[in-house]
Amino acid sequence: MILVTGGTGFLGAHLLVQLTNEGLPVRAIKRSESSLAFVKQIFQLYATDYIKQWELIKWEEADLLDIFQLEDALEGVNQVYHCAGKVSFVPSARSELMAVNARGTANLVNVCLNIPNIRLCHVSSIAAIGRSRLDEVIAEDRFWKNDPNNSWYAMSKYQAEREVWRGIEEGLNAVIVNPAVILGVCNWQEGTGRMFSQVWNGLRFYTQGVTGWVDVNDVARAMILLMKSNIVAERYILSEGNHSYHEIFNLIADYLGKKRPNIKAPSFLTNLAWRIESLRSIFADKEPLITKESARTATLSCFYDNSKLIREFGFSYTPIETTIQNTARVYLKKFQSEIYY
Q1: Which of 33, 125, 140, 284 is the most buried (most CB within 10 A)?
Q2: Per-domain residue ranges for the chain?
Q3: What would the pLDDT profile of 23-33 be if each residue is shown by its tens digit?
Q4: Which backbone phi and psi does 115 adopt, to 5 degrees?
């Protein structure tokens, strides 16, 4: 039996489609307050046989911070895809980041260690590799160093990955993936979905930062590929390539039929923007669109080496322009139908 954590999330939903496309029964855990609406929409988009595949999923309520619920969820399981996690750059979320990402992963690893012949694929992040040397291409063998460029999110994912490596040392059969910034059809008010919404609403400013980018379906495909292999105790950067935020926003604008952002944001302007947005979020009682950490990240130029998966498996990535084109097409449909977020 296969277990997917974070099944209602961005990556988890796409992974569930691909697993059930192969006719595999899957157990997926969700928190009690989580909705299945987004997952159903992703299945309507990508499933070969929506109704049949949806019936292959058994949903169970479980919290990563409740080890007894995890033990129940993992009963009879021999493969775990650990997609659950929290992404945030808001200062008030720091304790929750460490709890969900680090302590939650520690709990999962501990339960897995008590189950014979279980295999784990842990979804980490390129952020967990660190950004201490921006003048070098970052590969899987880079060692983490504490650095002001590392966000709290990055630190929480680093701590989570350490728990998996600890489990591996204790005999856990596990492999780790470190996805770049993931793009694809998602909730347009969360994560990278906000990028499409910002451009749609008339984004004018851009930064010159560079990072890795990857299609959500490629991440799911790579995870399944690695789980079918005999690879143990390895991590893989998942990235189509390195692109500037300006390039990405220009492509989004082009495929949404909007004007490209044309004003380069200097450092003083980005610093002003996150401060203004912080005040606005307080009065609006909503998470800010820009924070000090996200503004800093958007100005950094980080280059990631994606050759390991390509070299060892002949893996081919979806061109990021194709990803943006396909995602924009679905985004535009939301103005003609209530089916999509």
Answers
A1: 125
A2: 2-185+212-240+303-318
A3: 989 999 998 88
A4: -115, 120
